[in-house]
Amino acid sequence: MSKTSAGSREKLIEAGMRLLEERGPEALNARGLAAEIGASTMAVYTHFGGMAGLYEAIGREAFARFERHLRQVPDTEDPVTDLLVLGLAYREFAMASPQRYRLMFGIASPGALPSFGHDLTAEGTPATAAEVNDAFALLPRLVRRAMNAGRIRRDDPVLVAGQIWCMIHGYVLLESTGVFGQEGRGVLHILGPHVINLLVGLGDDRAAAEHSAGQSLLNVEAAAAVAPEPAPRRGRRPRPAQ
After folding, report:
1. Which residues contact 126 (CB under 8 A, 6 or more apart)?
2. pLDDT, tens digit, 9 for 90 and up, residues 100-129
3. Which CATH number fits domain 60-226: 2.60.40.1120, 1.10.3720.10, 2.40.30.60, 1.10.357.10?
4. Which residue spans adopt a coiled-coil conformation according to this UniProt entry (predicted)?
């Protein structure tokens, strides 16, 4: 593939990501996307074979950015705190890019989005997209660390990771609809206690779980305090988290 051709392909994916967040999935159509990059509608078919292929490419890129966002969470001496910070980073991505997040999981699909799944928690059945596997793999790694530290009892770390993913995924979908009220209230009064109860059910000491939960919030606040403030772009809408 030539550099020009590859550039057009990437521009179409980027335009799709942006239009998805700005206007919703109904904005994703061949004519509109081609117009965004100054190309003909044939560009969509040349690079992706049609809109279904472009939807898949957008979904893969969204998962790749999701994985990069989660990977920014550093390891500390407390694996449970790290696990909870990962959950907060997950929520941050989903709340900053709600349309993108819904597309990734086939909740609000503009067309026949191919399944990226199968059963990620069953050995030998990885997702059809490597980007999905890479994102999910971060979670069982932290679960193993918590088990090795004696914080939660030993079990299949992949299955435990699936339980945690189920919890945070359900939470962010509910929060994104506004059912938990003002910003941050759900984290403190719904997600936080839910996480602590799950950790205790997995074998952690309640006091230790509560300490790690509090520390995770402090770590996130500290990271936000030192992060550089992005310069606003004149005449442009705020961009979602990458």
Report:
1. 118, 120, 133
2. 898 888 876 655 455 555 677 775 555 567
3. 1.10.357.10
4. none
